Amino acid sequence: MKMSKPWIRYLWLLGAVISIYVLVSYLIMPATWARIEHEPGLTKRAMVTSTAQGIPGDAINVGLIGTREDVVSAFHAAGWYPADPITLRTSLEIIGSVLLDRSYKEAPVSPLYFDGRREDLAFERAAGTSADRRQHVRLWLVLQNGADGSPVWLGSASFDSGVTLSRDTGQVTHKIAPNIDEERERLIAGLDNARMVLSMYQIRGVGPTLKGRNGEGDPYYTDGEIWVARLVAAGQKTAAPAKLLPAPALIQMKDKMFAWSSSLG
Question: Higher model confidence: residue 30 or residue 9?
């Protein structure tokens, strides 16, 4: 018996619906969500810092797995210095460093807040003689015991491209370069080159952002991902580069599209 055209159309429509369901439920959704399973305890956090006044600050873009000793040892091996606290002496010293073009490798960083508290650690790496240009990162211990029982740190990494006065306090502060993804990747690569990283992977961050502003009003853009590095124990170097756990294909595609679109200006 020959089927009528309406029935043929109905079967085609039913087949299309089933195909779309299978594609979304068994391929697209698992590919989208698989990456957050590395650290389930982080999935509900808003991945952005704030100033003491509650103004949104820098985006969270790096993560580290390891003890405090592991973190300190890793940055030391990669040539980074811990930032001094902000005092009258250190404030005058950073002003002198900028004006006189002299070295101050431990120059202070302005405080930011995440989960209601200021950073636990801050590190920097000078990009010249004075303290006006530097790589820097603030880190917060967010989980005492992560997925494998190790401490988990989240941080905001950016590049200071010059100095200005804080619009809130009048203190000397830095302005950041807008491409914070570049600084995120440079930081993780530096730790890896120092053989301080066992493995690295991505988790979800603040999300793709083309017109972000930090607490001082500096513009930034990011693909919204956080790169996480699992550190070696107590600075014991690995024999080989870190193992990369690739992100799902859809995330990689999104990152490439974002990098292309942001390069257009």
Answer: 9
